[in-house]
Write a structure and sequence with these properties.
The protein has 121 residues and is mainly α. It has a domain at 3-83. Helices cover 82% and strands 0% of the residues. The protein has helices at residues 3-40, 45-56, 58-69, 71-81, 90-115. Helix 1 (3-40) packs antiparallel against helix 2 (45-56) and helix 3 packs across helix 4 (71-81). The radius of gyration is 29 Å and the shape is flat. Pfam families: 7TM_GPCR_Srh.
């Protein structure tokens, strides 16, 4: 195997272990607390709610870790996440640029017709 293949496989294994650790912490810790609360009649409702949120968002955290720790994914996905500092909505920019292109193309075609002495149709 080439060195780049070995490097990529090592990166994938590290990413896999990190994701496994995230799943383990964010699912097993709330489960252990649930078993404790069941047997010892715990009244820590705020902690129980926060641990429930950990279980609910473990997939999101794992996906973020996958993007951060896997270089090919990071290079492809991060440019899509970055926001540009536009002052107007992007859909209006597209409308304005296309309408100005239409006007400029109609001016050019009008000039071409005049230079070729062709009557407008």
């Amino acid at each position: 195997m080439s060195t780049s293949t070995i490097k990529l496989q090592r990166m994938m294994v590290v990413s896999l272990f990190i994701q496994g650790g995230i799943h383990g912490m964010m699912i097993m810790l709330p489960t252990i607390f649930l078993i404790y609360a069941l047997f010892f009649n715990s009244t820590l409702n705020e902690l129980a709610l926060s641990l429930l949120m950990c279980v609910a968002y473990h997939g999101f955290a794992s996906t973020c870790a996958m993007i951060i720790f896997t270089k090919p994914l990071r290079e492809r996905i991060i440019p899509f996440i970055k926001f540009s500092g536009q002052s107007e909505p992007s859909n209006l920019t597209g409308i304005r640029s296309s309408s100005s292109q239409d006007r400029s193309s109609s001016r050019h075609s009008h000039r071409e017709r005049r230079s070729n002495n062709v009557a407008p149709s």
